[in-house]
Amino acid sequence: MESSEQLSLEQQFSLRTFTDLVRSLSPEESQGLSVELYRRMMLKDNLYEELLKDYWDGSFPASA
Predict the structure, then answer these.
(1) Is the distance from CB of 25 to CB of 33 less than 8 angstroms?
(2) How far apart are CA 38 and CA 17, in angstroms?
(3) Model's pTM, two decimal places?
C-alpha cells in the first residue's frame, strides 16, 4: 500500500473519534451531514482545479 493511502496515527485517532460520533447520530442527522460533506468535497475539487489551472497557465507564483 502506498504511503498516500495510509493514515498517520493522529488521523487514525481522528477517524475513530469521528466514527464514534457518527454512530451516535440519528438517521436524519447522518443524512444532513452526508450532504454537507459531499458539498464540501465538491468545493475542495473546485479549489484544486482552480489551483492547477493557475499553475499550468503560469499565473501560479514561483517558489523562492
Answers:
(1) yes
(2) 20
(3) 0.64
